[in-house]
């Protein structure tokens, strides 16, 4: 489930966007399940948030790297 930074950097911008949207949707479903009380493993939410943060961080790095050139 969690992606390593090297794996994320190897992705194209479009792949990162698609993966980010998938992960956000999955997170939203898991959070709703947690609020209702039907989630099987609430421990999966935290790694999901961290993966989303990693993707967003790398996107920002790539954007700033492009602005400097």
UniProtKB/TrEMBL annotation:
Gene3D superfamilies: 1.10.287.310. Belongs to the universal ribosomal protein uL29 family. It comes from Fervidicoccus fontis. GO terms for molecular function: structural constituent of ribosome. It holds the Pfam family Ribosomal_L29. InterPro entries: Ribosomal_protein_uL29, Ribosomal_uL29, Ribosomal_uL29_CS, Ribosomal_uL29_sf. This is Large ribosomal subunit protein uL29. GO terms for cellular component: cytosolic large ribosomal subunit. HAMAP family: Ribosomal_uL29 (MF_00374). Keywords: Ribonucleoprotein, Ribosomal protein. The gene is rpmC. GO terms for biological process: translation.
